C-alpha cells in the first residue's frame, strides 16, 4: 500500500513594506497675483527636497531644507505645476495659478436711508446693493451676493443705526476669485415724506434700437419730482443697461433723497410693471428711500439697471433735492459692457416712429373723495381715464401711468335695522390688467385680470344706520391696459379676496 503523500509546505508570505507617508504640502494648491510672494509648508518629507516647475517663466521657487518651506515668487500670469520630490523618490504636484484678483471687496462703508421705520427687507436690499457698488471689479468680473447670505430681522427706527455684514464673491474668467465681506453701517435719517410737484415720464422710445439720451431735466430744492421710465430691449439688439445720472456742475455738494421702485429685467412686461408699481407704492407709504451726497463737479449714477435683449425694465422714483445747487438729471441707454463712471452723454434725445409719452406732466397725484349709499346705485371710480397734457410739446399721458391715486370712500348704510354687506371690486375696462392697492393700510394685489371681469378686492360690513370709511391708494401699472374701474356695490357672495381661486392676494 503506497504511503500517503504530504501536502507541500505553504510558501511564506513576505511581510509588506510599511506604506510610506505621502508628502503633504500646505496649501495643496495656490493662486497669487503677479509679483506676490507666498510660502508653502512641507510635512512628511524625508531627506533633501528638490523642486521642478512645469513653466519656470511663471514663478520662481526656493526651498528651505531646514525649515521645510518653499518660497514662491509670482513672475507673470499663467498656470503651472510645482513638483516636490524627496529622497524616497516620492513626489507631490502643486497646481499654481498666477493671475490678477477679480476685484477688491470694500472693508466698510456707510449708507443713509429713510423709513418710518425702515423694514428689515429694505435694509438688507440697500446694504447688499451698496456693498456690491463699493466693490472694485476688473473688466469682465462679476459679483455674487444674495440677501439670503446674511441675517437681519428687525426694523430700523428713525435716527437709529445698524451694522450689516454682507458676504460676497468676486469672480471672472482668467482672474483669481476673491471672497470676503463688507461691513455696511446703515443710518436711518429723519426726513419728511416726499411730496412731488410734477411727474416726469420716459417711455419714448419705448422699444430701444440705439444707445443714447432718453430723458433729461433739472432738479432743484424748490420742487420734488416723481419719475417713471419704462423701456424694452427687443430680440436682436445688444445687451444694454439703463443709467440714471445726477450731474452736479457746481463746486458745492448737494444732498438728494430718493425712493425707487425698480423692477426687471424680465420678459413679462405686465410682471415688470406690476412689481415696479408694487415696490414704489409700498416704499412711498413707508417713506423708505436713500439719501446721497452728490459731490461738486461730479456725475453720480443713482440707478444702474441691466437691460438684456428680449427684456423690459421699469422704475418709479420720487426725487427731492434737500440742499445744494441745482442738479441735472439724465437717463441713458448704453451697452451693458460699457463703464458707467463719468458717462455724460448729451445732445439729441433718442426718437422712434411709434409715439409714447415722454416729458414733464403737471399732476403727479389725484385725490378723490366719494360717498356711497348702500341703498342707491353702485359707485364707479375710474382709474387711469384722464389724459394729462405735457407741459411743453410732448405726448399726452394716457392711462395716468405714474400718477398716484388716493381715494377715500364713505360707505353709508341708511337702514336703521339691518347691516349692509358691501364689496369693492376691480373692473378692467381697457384690457388685461394687474393691480396694486393699499386698502386701509393693507397691501392688496391682483394677478392679471381679464378685461371687463369683476374681481373682489375687499369686503365690508356696515352697521345699521352707520358708516364705514375706507381709503385706497393705487396707481395704473406699466404693461397693463387701463382704465380700470373700482366699483363699490352690494356683496354678490362671490369668492372672497385671498381665498382659493381668487386672483386677488
Overview of this protein structure:
The structure is a single chain. With 505 residues, the protein is mainly beta. The protein has four domains: 24-98, Immunoglobulin-like (Sandwich); 103-188, Immunoglobulin-like, CATH 2.60.40; 198-361, no CATH class; 365-490, Sandwich (Jelly Rolls). 7% of the residues lie in helices and 48% in strands. The protein contains two helices and 33 strands. A ten-stranded mixed β-sheet has the order 12-13-14-10-20-19-22-17-15-24. A five-stranded mixed β-sheet has the order 25-27-32-29-30. The protein is elongated, with a radius of gyration of 33 Å. The chain starts with 23 loop residues before the first strand and ends in a 15-residue tail after the last strand.
Amino acid at each position: 500500500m503506497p504511503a500517503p503523500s504530504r501536502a507541500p509546505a505553504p510558501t511564506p508570505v513576505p511581510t509588506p513594506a510599511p506604506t510610506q507617508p505621502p508628502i503633504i504640502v500646505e496649501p495643496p494648491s495656490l493662486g497669487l497675483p503677479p509679483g506676490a510672494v507666498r510660502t508653502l509648508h512641507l510635512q512628511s518629507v524625508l531627506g533633501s527636497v528638490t523642486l521642478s516647475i512645469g513653466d519656470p517663466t511663471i514663478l520662481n521657487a526656493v526651498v528651505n531644507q531646514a525649515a521645510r518651506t518653499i518660497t514662491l515668487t509670482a513672475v507673470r500670469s499663467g498656470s503651472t505645476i510645482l513638483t516636490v520630490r524627496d529622497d524616497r523618490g516620492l513626489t507631490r504636484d502643486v497646481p499654481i495659478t498666477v493671475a490678477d484678483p477679480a476685484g477688491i471687496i470694500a472693508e466698510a462703508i456707510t449708507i443713509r436711508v429713510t423709513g418710518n421705520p425702515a423694514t428689515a427687507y429694505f435694509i438688507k436690499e440697500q446694504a447688499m446693493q451698496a456693498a456690491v457698488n463699493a466693490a472694485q471689479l476688473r473688466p469682465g468680473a462679476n459679483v455674487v451676493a444674495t440677501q439670503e447670505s446674511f441675517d437681519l430681522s428687525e426694523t430700523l427706527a428713525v435716527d437709529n443705526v445698524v451694522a450689516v455684514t454682507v458676504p460676497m464673491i468676486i469672480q471672472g474668467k482668467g482672474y483669481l476669485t476673491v471672497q470676503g465681506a463688507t461691513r455696511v453701517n446703515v443710518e436711518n435719517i429723519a426726513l419728511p415724506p416726499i411730496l412731488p410737484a410734477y411727474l416726469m415720464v420716459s417711455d419714448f422710445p419705448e422699444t430701444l434700437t440705439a444707445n443714447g439720451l432718453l430723458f433729461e431735466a433739472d432738479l432743484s430744492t424748490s420742487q420734488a419730482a416723481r419719475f417713471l421710465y419704462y423701456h424694452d430691449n427687443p430680440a436682436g439688439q445688444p445687451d444694454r443697461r439703463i443709467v440714471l445720472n445726477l450731474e452736479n456742475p457746481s463746486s458745492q455738494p448737494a444732498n438728494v433723497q430718493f425712493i425707487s421702485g425698480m423692477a426687471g429685467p424680465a420678459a413679462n412686461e405686465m410682471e415688470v410693471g406690476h412689481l415696479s408699481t408694487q415696490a414704489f407704492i409700498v416704499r412711498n407709504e413707508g417713506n423708505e428711500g436713500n439719501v446721497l451726497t452728490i459731490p461738486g463737479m461730479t456725475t453720480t449714477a443713482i440707478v444702474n439697471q441691466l437691460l438684456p435683449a428680449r427684456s423690459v425694465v421699469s422704475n418709479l422714483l420720487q426725487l427731492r433735492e434737500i440742499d445744494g445747487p441745482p442738479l441735472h438729471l439724465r437717463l441713458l441707454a448704453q451697452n451693458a459692457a460699457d463703464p458707467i463712471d463719468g458717462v455724460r452723454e448729451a445732445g439729441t434725445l433718442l426718437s422712434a416712429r411709434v409715439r409714447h409719452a415722454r416729458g414733464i406732466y403737471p399732476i403727479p397725484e389725484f385725490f378723490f373723495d366719494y360717498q356711497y349709499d348702500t341703498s342707491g346705485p353702485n359707485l364707479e371710480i375710474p382709474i387711469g381715464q384722464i389724459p394729462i397734457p405735457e407741459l411743453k410739446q410732448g405726448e399726452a399721458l394716457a392711462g395716468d401711468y405714474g400718477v398716484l391715486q388716493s381715494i377715500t370712500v364713505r360707505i353709508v348704510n341708511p337702514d336703521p335695522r339691518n347691516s349692509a354687506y358691501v364689496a369693492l371690486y376691480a373692473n378692467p375696462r381697457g384690457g388685461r390688467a394687474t393691480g396694486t392697492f393699499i386698502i386701509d393700510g393693507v397691501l392688496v394685489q391682483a394677478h392679471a385680470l381679464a378685461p371687463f371681469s369683476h374681481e373682489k378686492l375687499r369686503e365690508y360690513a356696515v352697521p345699521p344706520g352707520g358708516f364705514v370709511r375706507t381709503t385706497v391708494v393705487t396707481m395704473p401699472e406699466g404693461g397693463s391696459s387701463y382704465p380700470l374701474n373700482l366699483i363699490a356695490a352690494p356683496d354678490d357672495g362671490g369668492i372672497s379676496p385671498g381665498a382659493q381661486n381668487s386672483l386677488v392676494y
